[in-house]
């Protein structure tokens, strides 16, 4: 679950006669000293948590060393980042909870984090016109990260998001009111208003402009505006390739982001996608195959076991028609990804930053031969076919690092699918980065699973996501111990032969500097 930062402010205080600082949240209207701290604990119901700066005795790269793409290929320690709240910048282009975020950045720096991930939304930057851009609030956040001594991974989201409620730009939605088929449509005719149909990428449907041209203008504006940050502060740019910022169709029900655990539905019923399907079917010599998606596929809330299309034995997915449709459906997703990565590579390719994009870990129902949740999302992956080989080959073509969420997921299905995707990445020489799917809760072994995956050859790991719950007494101590455990792994790995690391790359500040920064906080 994605968590936004809301509610109480973060405060950092020094206890009397102690070098240990305390991190917590302040209630509105309360001060930071004397009896108010007692009232604060009671009224906010937050226990103070000891925060001690971690000294990174062994680190391959200091935070003040310029980023270089060559180091990406050889650096062993995993770079640990933390995602900023999705609502860090509001829809009105202001910073939400600026003081709280600033204190959170300092706390992460003192803990030893490498950097943070900043989610950027198309609708915030370009709300009213395809010709106007406003990066002011995001520039301010970049300055905050730079002042804190943290690196930035910037995620350029070309999609909407339901939490927070950020949809597509208003002028894009106005175009959709005139022509609803520029949006994805499911079998029941319901529109997905957070993602443009891939079929209109190269059609002049946005005030006479093609979406690919609009995206290129957005990328170039970002490149020009943040030119002084590349390499020194911004070291990675993540490009959204589909629904929820991932390379996939919006196969989940509308208004659903990432918690859906069923199969989903095929998204091929807008007139532009149907036109492409019709042409493909006619070229294949079977015009009837182009009338629509599989008629016997399950609905959002139905089990795939009750579907003639997805069932393991005799399912129509494993027929000539099924092979035709699934091949075409997955190819349209790959063509869309290729178009966007080509644009991003042309704009950002010469900058001292790493290009990256997300591929979802759709492990639900992975035990079935048909892999139904992956099929509806656009990955033609089954017991008889590798649906990720062509995708990783595309990533390799543009030197794009692959980010895989769900590194905290437990069970045989996530492990099996993750292993398959990483094998494909290894085959094509694609760097792999990871994310978690939700804040780790007490009494679970999810941090252990993250650590296991981190030590299995990741380039970086982004923990999602900062917010009020992130700094709560139920979570912050767990996260702190996770970071310390990873640091200990790195210290132990220093005695191993080169190439057998597996810890996290932490900032290498001295304790004196840590103490000065804590006093400032």
Automatic annotation (TrEMBL):
The active site is at 246 (proton donor), 435 (proton acceptor). InterPro entries: GH, Glyco_hydro_14. It catalyses: Hydrolysis of (1->4)-alpha-D-glucosidic linkages in polysaccharides so as to remove successive maltose units from the non-reducing ends of the chains. GO terms for biological process: polysaccharide catabolic process. Its EC number is 3.2.1.2. GO terms for molecular function: beta-amylase activity. Keywords: Carbohydrate metabolism, Glycosidase, Hydrolase, Polysaccharide degradation. Residues 510-521 have a biased composition (Basic and acidic residues). Residues 492-521 are annotated as: Disordered. Coiled coil: none annotated. It is an enzyme of class 3 (hydrolase). Belongs to the glycosyl hydrolase 14 family. This is Beta-amylase. It comes from Rhynchospora pubera.
């Amino acid at each position: 679950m994605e968590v936004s930062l809301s509610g109480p402010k973060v405060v950092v205080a020094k206890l009397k006669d102690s070098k240990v600082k305390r991190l917590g949240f302040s209630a509105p209207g309360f001060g930071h000293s004397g009896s108010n701290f007692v009232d604060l604990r009671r009224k906010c119901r937050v226990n103070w948590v000891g925060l001690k700066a971690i000294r990174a005795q062994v680190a391959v790269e200091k935070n003040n060393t310029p980023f270089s793409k060559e180091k990406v290929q050889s650096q062993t320690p995993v770079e640990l980042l933390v995602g900023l709240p999705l609502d860090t910048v509001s829809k009105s282009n202001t910073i939400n909870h600026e003081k709280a975020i600033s204190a959170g950045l300092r706390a992460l720096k003192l803990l030893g984090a490498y950097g943070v991930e900043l989610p950027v939304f198309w609708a915030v930057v370009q709300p009213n016109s395809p010709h106007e851009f406003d990066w002011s609030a995001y520039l301010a956040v970049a300055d905050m990260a730079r002042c804190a001594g943290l690196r930035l991974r910037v995620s350029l989201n070309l999609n909407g998001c339901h939490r927070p409620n950020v949809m597509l730009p208003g002028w894009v939605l106005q175009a959709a009111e005139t022509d609803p088929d520029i949006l994805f449509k499911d079998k029941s005719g319901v529109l997905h208003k957070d993602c443009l149909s891939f079929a209109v990428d190269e059609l002049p449907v946005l005030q006479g402009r093609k979406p690919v041209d609009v995206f290129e203008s957005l990328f170039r504006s970002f490149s020009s505006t943040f030119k002084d940050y590349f390499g020194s502060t911004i070291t990675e740019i993540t490009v959204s390739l589909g629904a929820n910022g991932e390379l996939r169709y919006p196969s989940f029900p509308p208004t659903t982001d990432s918690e859906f655990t069923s199969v989903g539905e095929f998204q091929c019923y807008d007139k532009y996608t149907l036109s492409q399907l019709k042409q493909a079917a006619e070229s294949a010599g079977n015009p009837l195959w182009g009338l629509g998606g599989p008629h016997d596929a399950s609905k959002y809330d139905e089990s795939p076991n009750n579907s003639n299309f997805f069932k393991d034995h005799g399912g129509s997915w494993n027929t000539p028609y099924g092979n035709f449709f699934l091949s075409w459906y997955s190819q349209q997703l790959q063509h869309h990804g290729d178009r966007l990565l080509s644009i991003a590579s042309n704009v950002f390719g010469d900058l001292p930053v790493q290009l990256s994009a997300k591929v979802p870990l759709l492990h639900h129902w992975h035990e079935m031969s048909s892999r139904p949740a992956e099929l509806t999302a656009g990955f033609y992956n089954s017991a008889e076919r590798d649906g990720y080989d062509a995708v990783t080959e595309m990533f390799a073509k543009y030197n794009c690092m692959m980010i895989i969420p769900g590194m905290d997921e437990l069970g045989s299905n996530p492990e099996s699918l993750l292993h398959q995707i990483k094998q494909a990445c290894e085959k094509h020489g694609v760097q792999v980065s990871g994310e978690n799917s939700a804040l780790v809760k007490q009494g679970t072994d999810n941090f252990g699973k993250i650590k296991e995956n981190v030590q299995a050859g990741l380039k970086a790991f982004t923990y999602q996501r900062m917010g009020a719950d992130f700094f709560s007494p139920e979570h912050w101590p767990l996260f702190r111990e996770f970071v310390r455990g990873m640091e200990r792994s790195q210290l132990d790995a220093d005695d191993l032969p080169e190439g057998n690391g597996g810890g996290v790359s932490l900032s290498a500040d001295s304790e004196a500097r840590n103490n000065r920064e804590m006093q400032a906080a």
